[in-house]
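Feature request, filed as a ticket because there's no other form

It would be nice if the structure record came with a short human-readable summary line next to the tokens. Right now we just get the raw output. Example of a typical job, pasted below so the devs can see what we mean:
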Amino acid sequence: MNNNTHRIAIFLPRPTPFYITLFQGIKKGFEKVGFTVSGQVENLGRDALLKFCRKFKPHTIFEMNRSRAQIPWLPKEIVHIAWIVDLLGNRPEHYRNSEVIYFFEEPLARTYNDLYHVKFHKTPETLVDWLPPRFCAGCIFS
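Raw output as currently delivered:
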């Protein structure tokens, strides 16, 4: 493996047909731009996630519906990207502390930025933005 390749781990909530297909599409997209991708369709608990990190040494972790606030044991040197598709009954501020927070809906990303960005993030470099669903026929059918 090329040591200069960025390693990203993707974790989606459950091993359902929908999440498996979504995982494969996201994985293929990252691979097309040169990332080394690992991960699975399950959010890991503390011991399993730490073991995973020791084995695969990801630079970045991309998770759906979970932020760094829910996994405080994640090593600080790993960048955490939270993609919040469903608030799961939580208030938006529940999803904080990740270096990057994407929301599925643009109005929620804007509201979060306006109300919580300064309050819940220690550094102004935290990115909070909108990551809408997309479909790339070239990624899927090539």
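Something like this underneath would help us a lot:
The chain has a mean pLDDT of 82.
Residues 7-141 form a domain with the Rossmann fold fold (CATH 3.40.50).
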